[in-house]
Amino acid sequence: MTAATPQQSAETSLYTASQWQLMWWRFSRHRVAVVSLVLLVFAYATALFAEVVSPHDPNRFSSSWVLAPPMRLHFTRPDGSFNLRPYVYGLTSARDEETLAMVIVPDETQVHPIRFWVKGDPYTLWGRFDSDIHLFGIDAWEEQPLFLMGADDLGRDLFSRIMFGARISLSIGLLGVGLSLLFGVVLGGISGYYGGLIDVIIQRIIELLRSLPTIPLWLTLVVILPPHWSALRIYFGITLILSLIGWTGMARVVRGRFLALREEDFIMAARLANAPQMRIIMRHMVPSFTSHLIAQMTLAVPGMILGETALSFLGLGLQPPVVSWGVLLQGAQNLRSVVLAPWLLLPGLFVVAVILAFNFAGDGLRDAADPYAI
Amino acid sequence: MDPGILIDIQKLHTNFYLREGVVKAVNGASLTIAKGRTLGVVGESGCGKSVTAQSILQIVPRPGRIESGDILLHIAEGDLDETINIADLNPGDPLMRDIRGSRISMIFQEPMTSFSPVHTVGNQLEETIKLHQPDRREEAPARVLDMLRRVGIANPERNVESYPHQLSGGMRQRAMVAMALMLEPSLLIADEPTTALDVTTEAQILALMRDMQSQLHMAIMFITHDLGVIAEMADDVAVMYLGRVVEKAPVRAIFHSPKHPYLQALLESIPRIQKRTGARLKAIEGVVPNPLDVPPGCPFHLRCPDFMPGVCDEVVPTDTTIDEGHSVACHLYTD
Amino acid sequence: MWKFLLQRLLLFVPTFLVISVITFVLIQAPPGDYINSYATQLEASGEEASEALLAALRKRYGLDQPVYVQYVKWLWGIFTRLDFGHSMQWNRPVGDLIWDRLAWTVVISFFTIIFTWILAFPIGIYSATHQYSGFDYSFTFLGFVGAGIPDFLLALVLMWLGFAFFGLDMGGLFSEAYRDAPWSWAKFVDMLKHLWVPVVVLSVSSTAGLIRTMRANLLDELRKPYVITARAKGMTEWHLVLKYPVRVALNPFISSIAYVLPQLISGTTIISIVLSLPTTGPIQIRSLMSQDMYLAGSIFLLLASLTILGTFISDILLAVVDPRIRLE
Description:
The complex is a heterotrimer of chains A (374), B (335) and C (328).
Chain A: H1 4-16, H2 19-28, H3 31-48, H4 50-53, E1 74-76, E2 82-95, E3 102-125, E4 129-138, H5 158-194, H6 196-211, H7 214-222, H8 231-262, H9 265-272, H10 277-313, H11 325-330, H12 335-340, H13 346-369
Antiparallel strand pairs in A: 1-2, 2-3, 3-4
Chain B: E1 5-18, E2 21-34, E3 38-42, H1 49-57, E4 64-77, E5 80-85, H2 94-99, E6 104-107, H3 121-132, H4 140-150, H5 156-159, H6 169-181, E7 187-191, H7 199-216, E8 219-224, H8 227-233, E9 236-241, E10 244-250, H9 251-256, H10 261-268, E11 319-323, E12 326-329
Parallel strand pairs in B: 3-8, 3-9, 6-7, 7-8
Antiparallel strand pairs in B: 1-2, 1-4, 4-5, 9-10, 10-12, 11-12
Chain C: H1 2-28, H2 34-44, H3 51-60, H4 67-81, E1 86-87, E2 92-93, H5 94-129, H6 134-148, H7 151-166, H8 185-222, H9 225-232, H10 237-243, H11 245-274, H12 280-289, H13 293-321, H14 323-326
Helix pairs in contact in C: 1-13, 5-6, 5-8, 5-11, 5-13, 6-8, 7-8, 7-11, 8-11, 11-12, 11-13, 12-13
């Protein structure tokens, strides 16, 4: 029975593994979820270092580059051979022969290789470190900006703006979920632990909030924010409004788990051992549903990001000069500008990618959090 | 084939293909069910008794399927005399569907969840007739009423219109029996039919089954883990352990001269009134092995008090005949 | 069953009242009122806004009265003569402005729910009965993608593709020729030609959700003993799946009206801006921006009532379909 030995040792380690190890093992079986998680870590890291990652100052505008199209990356030299270092062609204005309008077209006589760690617009990282070195860019950045994803209607580099927008859009998701968690755990916990009338009232409020159409509600709420508020306060205000709906989901999970756990033997044992109530909640109940909460939180982030994007897109959320993905999409609000410059839709692609990643990762976590799943 | 035999199962293997490996739920089981008699199949949970029953009807749930072996069904009706090997049929085969519900029917442990909650009892009972005798569908309501009356359901006219949740547990199991017997099958498989019921109701249902058996002359395959019920119901008994039948005998021999160490241990573990007080009840040593990793040789050798090294853990024992109709699969009895 | 329905109906009234209070508080909350923003407008266009004029306007619209008096008057008007107040911006009764817009919101939501069901029902059944098949995997994946795309973005992309490749203008609900024409068969057909765009856009995410619900519920039901009973009776597989588990899994499907409807109404609001549809969305935003409080408030109140009505309808349907609810 030699073959049984490794299996048995695997089995023993399965029995002695901690809850988190088990969860991680189950999670790592979901390949899509793991890839999504890596993608999210990457996205947040990028947002954190937006100044370095973006080749330009997001507010640097120029009338000569209004709605400049995205530059193509070329990997082949003019003679056809492959070149690992990509280069772009510079842009120039020309008159369209048919419509006779001025358009911006690539100029194949100007070749700009893309280099790492080049000098560019000066910036202050996190309000502290001054520098002008960017992760990548082209040498002639002052005369010829690098437009990987085109330029907006003020000639600003869309790629750089998306990087900076990520900072707001991604953080609003996390912050909103954090606030939802706070409300959800407190109210859901009260509801589930005490039960009775207070439970009925909280459940009715949750039902009512969930039955309201979110966007009309958010719109009505957003108008309350005083227009003279600073951008930072508006940001927090909007986050608060978004989490006003978000907490109901958390509260349901917490309440449901509390109700189930109240009946469990180990809680009864703790109670019989005369453990203080707070200790029972914090030491015994909360740890046993933390994993469920994490999964639920991951699944709640997309709703927050979508909410901010939708509100800002409608012009009632964050306002320029603040840059978020929703604010950027405002530029694509009407058909005319989209037809003229389809790349203005690109921030939407980032929204979709991040939302998908959160959904896949959250789904994997939810499966992994189920202790009876194996 | 012996004309008195209805079902003859030979070396049946039914496997479940899981991600973690293959579970050999039925691992070479052989048994026979005689016409008009009751075969009790007894064993711990997970020993493969339910899967054997499901194999007879070809309703083994996915990812399980019959791997090999024979399940011979003997049909003798008037001029008709033929033998069908059910194990060779596809689960979706029309012939198999003909057999299910008409020649062989089954009742289950949970009378509540075994009925659809959103259809009336009458609707679910009539269905059997409509499926198998579509040309006689007009008679269905009357026959359902008649059968409900026969199984002792009071006020059948009102109860056909009820939904399962409106009936009591005992009534539901009676309705279940009625549904199974609607077409007077030659075999009724009862998979722990009384486990979910209280003792009084259990006695009533058992009495009902014996009564219906004498009226309809059908065979019953009675699956249970309760030796007391076996003593009451069975004519013959098959004892299963880890997917194999370890002992087959008439019911008296099972209780009076058990041969297999597993069966002996099982009988010792039953509390008895006449035994002197203070003695500890015996339990079988060890636990049932992981079904993913069945030990070689005799499946019971890890827990057996009479374990013979070099024999029991290497060679799978074959059936040894002890007496007329009494056989055991154990190395202690091979010469 | 009647008791159950009456109970549900009685719950509707207090819910409506609570929502109306919330609505009124919300639209009163922003600092200033319509007269302030009107004065700003006047000043911007160079006219003088005298205090006397503003005071007269306030008096006329009842804005000088205490908030609770305004609320009671508003609610009284709604209950007695369906009068939702006066839109100060349009200088017309709110009712005139919103009824047909609300009707369009309802029509679009209705068609979307029907369309969603038609898609989600068979796909959900097939996915559950063929779990882990290629089809199941692709629809699970598509479901994730569908749920991840914001509907307004989808509307934009669709509009852009339609224009860039087919030269179509997919906005609006009618072609130029029929916009002001009286109702006729031709106008109806023209409407259907335009209606599919918002319906498809809105149904993507709700279909994704419903397929998941249907699949999960059906998988649960397929493991129930009554399925084995039916199989042991000799039913064919598709016959038994359709008769039993699908029938039981219908319940969560019907309750989905209750949570899909708010989602649809929410989605209609935003895609109406992109697709320039004559629903409540565009005027709600405009009224909120100009603090046209009765208009903004009435729209929100009616939209919220619609979703609560949806819950009520799904309760009725559930009682019809499920004897366990009906007979309790």
